[in-house]
Design goal:
By secondary structure, the protein is of the alpha+beta class. It has helices at residues 21-28, 34-42, 71-78, 114-123, 151-159, 161-164, 236-244, 290-295; strands at 2-7, 10-15, 19-20, 46-48, 51-52, 59-60, 65-69, 83-88, 92-97, 132-133, 142-148, 165-175, 182-191, 197-200, 207-218, 222-229, 266-274, 281-285.
């Protein structure tokens, strides 16, 4: 039925025939009760091709990999604050970072950060383990972030970032009703001495930036946008939304009038890139915060 290997406190199985997920798990975990298998699914301990799946009737296809995280490893992950792990292998850890959590250390050494949380997590199994940040998210932006487990993987990904990354999708909750159903914003971005980015429609020596957006839903107060980055400049979405006339909710630095969410309305929803070891394109997603959906109905 499947080929099995053990790695990183995770049992990894390769599917040999199409079937639904729960029956598949019951077969490969024949020594476990039906209720315990269902609990493992409910707790998010099962991934299919690196993506967490909780649906009992999820349709498995031949060749897919089903990974089952051990209870001990799941408990270790549950100790994380403001971070949940979306995927882990021998080269990478992909997380969903909560808003309000810094990506990396600030001047206050003891401040809680995503980097510190994930470092503590990998050192629970080996005190010599290290992680290396591949890219960052702003403190008040939530969503998908990637850490490397070696400096070589970090450098390879960062040095070839433009070629390695195939998709960067964000979800933005912006002020007001965006009139157009979709659009593209192009400009040159420069940074002031106060670390604020400014947009110019003509080349002023800054960095060229391109943002594509599509309206998902809206009301008179807010619009929910799916945003794709063609370039990845500092604060690019935030600047371009201000230029559009619909600042990101809560983003007072770039024109927002209020902060009803007590965070900015920006979430890194999906990241697709070439895996440094396999050369295959992998894609990881983090669910859009429910408050974004509720505010824009």
């Amino acid at each position: 039925m499947s080929r099995k290997q053990e790695s990183l406190n995770t049992a990894v199985n390769t599917v040999d025939e199409p079937m639904e997920l729960l029956p598949y798990l019951l077969k490969i975990m024949s020594k476990s009760s039906r209720n315990s298998v269902k609990s493992i699914l409910t707790r998010g301990q099962v991934t299919v091709n690196g993506q967490m799946v909780k649906q009992h009737n999820y349709s498995l296809q031949t060749g897919q990999t089903v990974a089952i995280l051990s209870n001990q490893a799941a408990q270790s992950k549950s100790k994380l604050i403001g971070v949940s792990i979306l995927h882990e292998d021998e080269d990478l850890i992909v997380i969903n970072k909560n808003a309000g959590l810094l990506s990396v250390a600030s001047k206050r050494e003891n401040e809680l950060t995503a980097y510190r949380q994930v470092t503590d997590y990998v050192r629970r199994s080996n005190s010599k383990n290290r992680i290396f940040i591949v890219h960052r998210l702003d403190k008040d932006t939530s969503g998908v972030m990637v850490f490397a487990k070696s400096e070589k993987v970090q450098q390879d990904m960062q040095n070839g970032w433009t070629e390695v990354v195939k998709e960067r999708m964000y979800t933005a909750l912006v002020e007001g009703e965006v009139k157009k159903s979709s659009g593209t914003i192009k400009s040159w971005l420069t940074e002031s001495s106060t670390f604020k980015m400014y947009s110019s429609p003509v080349d002023n020596g800054g960095q060229y930036a391109v943002t594509h957006y599509k309206k998902i839903q809206s009301n008179k107060d807010c619009s929910l946008l799916e945003v794709h980055l063609e370039t990845g400049r500092k604060n690019q979405i935030r600047v371009h939304m201000e230029e559009l006339g619909n600042s990101v909710v809560g983003d007072k630095k770039y024109g927002a009038t209020g902060n009803p969410l007590r965070r900015i309305g920006l979430h890194a929803t999906a990241l697709a890139f070439v895996h440094p070891r396999t050369g295959e394109i992998v894609r990881y997603t983090a669910d859009v915060p429910q408050i974004f959906l509720a505010r824009s109905k």
